[in-house]
C-alpha cells in the first residue's frame, strides 16, 4: 500500500461546518500506527458543539480507530486531540476528564452481563461521578424511559433483545450526562427490525442538540440527521460535505465508487 | 365444519418399551438399576463369604485397641498407647492441615502466576509460562520426593548452628531455624493462660484459642457492619467514607488487647545439645509435601485464572473504561465478578485434587490418614476392608464438603441469562 494510493486534498464545503462557534473536538495532524501499519494519516477534524457527524468508508479505513482515539480507547502516536479544551495526553487526569464528558456506544453493546439493566446504568454515575444511589436510580429511570424500556430495568442484559440492549447501552452512556456521544457502528449487529428502534433513539438524541459522531453504514440516517458526512479511506479523510452534496454530488472518484457500491442496489 | 375426535387409543405393545420414546428411557433405567443392584449384591455376598472362609468377621472393634506405633508430626496429644481411632484422627487432622495449607498457598501462587502470565512484560510472561509448563508436566510424586531430597541434602544439620563461628545461622532475626530435620518456628505461649477445656477424656481444647477466635469473630462482624454503613452512606450521599483505618482498628485492637491480657509471647527455638528445642517443629516431610502440592497445583490454578480473565471480552473493559472507570475498579466491578464464574468450577476440582494428592504423603513419611489408618493400622490389624472403607469415607466426606461449599459460592456469583 503506497502513501499516494489516491492523492486528493479533502473537499470541504465551508457552509456545512458551523452549527455553533464553540469547538467541541479538535483533532490536528493526528497519526497512528499499528506496528508498521499506518492506520491513521494526518487526520484534521474540527467538530463544533451540536454538530452531528456521520463517518462512512469501507472496512479497514480507520473510521472506528479514529473515534476510539477520541476517548483514548486507542492511543494516537502523533498530533493533537483536544476535547472540550482538554488535551488528550497520557495524563490519567485528562483521560478521566475526557471520558466522563464523552459517551460511547459499541457495535456489540458491551453491557455488563452480571448486572441488571438498572445497575448497568447506575454503575458509572455511582463510582465515577459519586452520585447518591437514589439520584442515580432516578436519572437511570429517566433515560430508560427515554429509550422506552423502563419496564426492563430489573432484568439482566441476556434477557433482552439486541435492539433493546443497544438502547440500554445508549441510556447507560447518557446517565453520565456526556456532552459528546460517539457511536461505533451501533446498528451493525442488529436485525433490520431492530435497527429502526435504535436509529429512532439516536434521531431523538440528535434533535435535542447532542454533539454526535457516528460511524455507520446507515445512509438514510446520514441524510436525515447528519449535518456533515465524512468519507474515510486508507486512514485518511478523503472528503467531507453536507449530506445532500455528499450523496448527490461526490467530488472524489473513491467516494463515487463507494457510494455506487452501497447505494447501487 | 370439523369434528374433533380423540386420537385412536393405541393399544400397548411390549415392543413399545424399547421403541417408544415415552417408555424407552424408563425401561433402560430400570434395567440398569437391576444390573447395578445385582452386581453390588454379588460383591457383598462374595466378600462376606471369603471373609467368612478366612475366619474374619467384619468388625470395627480394632479401632478401640491400642495402636502401639508413634506418630512424629501431630496436632493433638498422642502416644503409642493411644487407640487406633485416635491415630486415625491424628492422621485425619494431618491430612486436613496439609490440604488447607496447600489450597491456600496454591491459590495465592496460582492467581499471581496466572495474572503475571498475561503481563505485557515479555520476560515475566515467559518465566511464568516456563513455571507452569515445568510443574504441571511432571508427576506430583516426583516433586514431593524432589522437595524432600532438597530439604534433606541442601539444608544444614542442626550441628552446623553450633560453635562461635557457625556454618549456618537462624533466619529472620534468629527466630526461624531451617535444618535438614525440619523447620523450627516460634510457638505462641501464654503466661496467664486460661487453661484447657476438656471434652470427654480424649480431647483438650485451649480456652485461649477459643477466646481469641471469639473476639476475632466479633471484631470481624463489627467490621462488616462498618462496611455496610459505608455502603448505606454511599447510597445516600454518593460519597464513600474512608473506613479502612477504623475497620483495621476494630479487627486488630480487641485481639491485641486480649493477647496482652493473656500474656502472649513467642517461644523461640533454641539450640540445645545436638538439636533445637522449643518453638513449633514442622518436619521436612510436611514442608516438602506442602511445597510440592502447592507448586504443582498452583500451575494448574494459574492456567484456570488466566483462562477466566481471558474469557471476559475486551469489550467489557473498553465499555467500562469509556464510562470513565479506572483500571482497579474495572477489575473489581466488571472483570473479576464475571471471571469468577469461569474460574470457580475448575478451581473446585483443583482443591479436590490437591486434597486427594496429599495421600502421597506416605512417600516422604508424613503421617496422614492414608499413612495411619490405611497404612500402619491396616498392617498391624489386618483389617484391610474396614480400614480402606473408612479411609474412602473420610476422603469422600472431605471432598464433598469442599465441593459443597464452593458450589454454594459459585451459585451466588453465576450469571442470569434468560
From TrEMBL, chain A:
SMART domains: AAA
CDD domains, per the entry: ABC_HisP_GlnQ
SUPFAM superfamilies cross-referenced by the UniProt entry: P-loop containing nucleoside triphosphate hydrolases
ABC transporter domain ranges (all copies): 25-259
Keyword annotations: ATP-binding, Nucleotide-binding, Transport
Superkingdom of the source species: Bacteria
Keyword match Lipid biosynthesis: no
Single GO term (MF): ATP binding
Transmembrane segments: none
Pfam families, per the entry: ABC_tran
Similarity section: Belongs to the ABC transporter superfamily.
Lineage of source species: Bacteria, Pseudomonadati, Pseudomonadota, Alphaproteobacteria, Rhodobacterales
InterPro entries reported for this sequence: AAA+_ATPase (IPR003593), ABC_ATPase_HisP-typ (IPR030679), ABC_transporter-like_ATP-bd (IPR003439), ABC_transporter-like_CS (IPR017871), MetN_ABC_transporter-like (IPR050086), P-loop_NTPase (IPR027417)
Record's protein name: ATP-binding cassette domain-containing protein
UniProtKB/TrEMBL annotation, chain B:
UniProt KW Transmembrane keyword: yes
Domain ABC transmembrane type-1, residue spans: 92-406
Keywords: Amino-acid transport, Cell membrane, Membrane, Transmembrane, Transmembrane helix, Transport
GO BP: any one term: amino acid transport
Protein localization: Cell inner membrane; Cell membrane
Transmembrane regions: 26-45, 96-118, 130-152, 205-223, 244-267, 287-309, 358-376, 388-409
Primary location group: membrane
Record keyword Transit peptide present: no
GO molecular function, a single term: transmembrane transporter activity
One GO CC annotation: ATP-binding cassette (ABC) transporter complex
Membrane topology of this protein: Multi-pass membrane protein
Family recorded in the similarity comment: Belongs to the binding-protein-dependent transport system permease family. HisMQ subfamily.
Official protein name in the record: ABC transporter permease subunit
Amino acid at each position: 500500500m503506497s502513501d499516494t494510493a489516491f492523492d486528493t486534498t479533502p473537499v470541504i464545503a465551508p457552509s456545512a461546518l458551523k452549527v455553533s462557534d464553540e469547538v467541541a473536538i479538535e483533532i490536528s495532524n493526528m497519526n497512528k500506527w499499528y506496528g508498521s501499519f499506518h492506520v491513521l494519516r494526518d487526520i484534521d477534524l474540527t467538530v463544533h458543539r451540536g454538530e452531528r457527524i456521520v463517518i462512512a468508508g469501507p472496512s479497514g479505513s480507520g473510521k472506528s480507530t479514529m473515534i476510539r482515539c477520541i476517548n483514548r480507547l486507542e492511543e494516537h502516536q502523533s498530533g493533537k486531540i483536544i476535547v472540550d479544551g482538554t488535551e488528550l495526553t497520557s495524563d490519567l487526569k485528562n483521560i478521566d476528564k475526557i471520558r466522563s464528558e464523552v459517551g460511547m456506544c459499541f457495535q456489540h453493546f458491551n453491557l455488563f452481563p452480571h448486572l441488571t439493566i438498572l445497575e448497568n446504568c447506575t454503575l458509572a454515575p455511582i463510582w465515577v461521578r459519586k452520585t447518591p444511589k437514589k439520584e442515580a436510580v432516578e436519572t437511570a429511570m429517566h433515560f430508560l424511559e427515554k429509550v422506552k424500556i423502563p419496564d426492563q430495568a430489573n432484568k439482566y442484559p441476556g434477557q433482552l433483545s439486541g435492539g433493546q440492549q443497544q438502547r440500554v447501552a445508549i441510556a447507560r452512556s447518557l446517565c453520565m450526562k456526556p456532552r459528546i456521544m460517539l457511536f461505533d457502528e451501533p446498528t451493525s449487529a442488529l436485525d433490520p427490525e431492530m435497527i429502526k428502534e435504535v436509529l429512532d433513539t439516536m434521531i431523538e438524541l440528535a434533535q435535542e442538540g447532542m454533539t454526535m459522531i457516528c460511524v455507520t453504514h446507515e445512509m438514510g440516517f446520514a441524510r436525515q440527521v447528519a449535518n456533515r458526512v465524512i468519507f474515510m479511506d486508507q486512514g485518511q479523510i478523503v472528503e467531507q460535505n453536507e449530506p445532500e452534496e455528499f450523496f448527490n454530488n461526490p467530488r472524489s472518484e473513491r467516494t463515487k465508487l463507494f457510494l455506487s457500491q452501497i447505494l447501487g442496489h | 365444519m370439523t369434528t374433533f375426535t380423540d386420537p385412536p387409543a393405541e393399544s400397548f405393545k411390549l415392543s413399545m418399551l424399547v421403541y417408544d420414546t415415552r417408555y424407552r428411557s424408563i425401561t433402560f433405567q430400570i434395567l440398569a438399576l437391576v444390573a447395578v443392584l445385582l452386581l453390588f449384591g454379588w460383591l457383598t455376598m462374595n466378600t462376606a463369604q471369603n471373609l467368612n472362609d478366612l475366619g474374619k468377621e467384619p468388625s470395627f472393634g480394632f479401632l478401640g485397641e491400642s495402636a502401639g506405633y508413634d506418630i512424629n508430626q501431630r496436632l493433638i496429644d498422642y502416644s503409642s498407647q493411644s487407640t487406633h481411632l485416635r491415630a486415625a484422627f491424628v492422621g485425619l487432622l494431618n491430612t486436613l492441615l496439609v490440604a488447607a495449607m496447600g489450597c491456600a498457598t496454591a491459590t495465592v501462587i496460582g492467581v499471581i502466576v496466572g495474572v503475571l502470565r498475561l503481563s505485557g512484560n515479555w520476560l515475566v510472561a515467559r518465566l511464568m509460562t516456563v513455571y507452569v509448563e515445568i510443574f504441571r508436566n511432571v508427576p506430583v510424586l516426583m516433586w514431593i520426593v524432589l522437595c524432600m531430597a532438597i530439604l534433606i541434602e541442601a539444608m544444614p544439620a542442626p550441628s552446623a548452628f553450633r560453635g562461635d563461628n557457625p556454618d549456618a545461622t537462624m533466619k529472620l532475626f534468629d527466630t526461624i531455624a531451617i535444618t535438614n530435620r525440619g523447620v523450627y518456628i516460634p510457638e505462641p505461649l501464654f503466661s496467664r493462660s486460661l487453661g484447657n477445656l476438656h471434652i470427654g477424656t480424649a480431647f483438650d481444647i485451649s480456652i485461649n484459642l477459643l477466646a481469641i477466635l471469639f473476639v476475632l469473630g466479633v471484631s470481624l462482624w463489627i467490621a462488616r457492619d462498618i462496611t455496610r454503613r459505608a455502603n448505606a452512606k454511599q447510597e445516600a450521599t454518593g460519597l464513600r467514607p474512608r473506613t479502612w483505618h477504623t475497620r483495621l482498628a476494630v479487627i486488630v485492637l480487641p485481639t491485641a488487647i486480649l493477647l496482652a491480657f493473656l500474656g502472649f509471647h513467642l517461644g523461640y527455638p533454641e539450640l540445645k545439645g545436638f538439636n533445637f528445642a522449643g518453638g513449633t517443629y514442622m518436619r521436612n516431610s510436611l514442608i516438602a509435601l506442602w511445597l510440592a502440592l502447592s507448586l504443582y497445583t498452583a500451575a494448574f490454578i494459574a492456567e484456570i485464572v488466566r483462562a477466566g480473565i481471558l474469557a471476559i471480552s475486551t469489550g467489557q473493559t473498553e465499555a467500562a473504561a469509556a464510562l470513565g472507570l479506572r483500571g482497579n475498579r474495572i477489575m473489581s466491578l466488571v472483570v473479576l465478578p464475571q471471571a469468577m464464574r469461569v474460574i470457580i468450577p475448575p478451581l473446585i476440582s483443583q482443591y479436590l485434587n490437591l486434597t486427594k494428592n496429599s495421600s502421597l504423603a506416605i512417600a516422604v513419611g508424613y503421617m496422614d490418614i492414608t499413612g495411619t489408618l490405611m497404612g500402619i493400622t491396616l498392617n498391624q490389624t489386618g483389617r484391610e476392608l474396614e480400614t480402606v472403607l473408612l479411609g474412602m469415607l473420610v476422603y469422600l466426606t472431605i471432598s464433598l464438603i469442599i465441593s459443597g461449599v464452593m458450589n454454594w459460592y459459585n451459585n451466588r456469583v453465576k450469571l442470569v441469562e434468560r
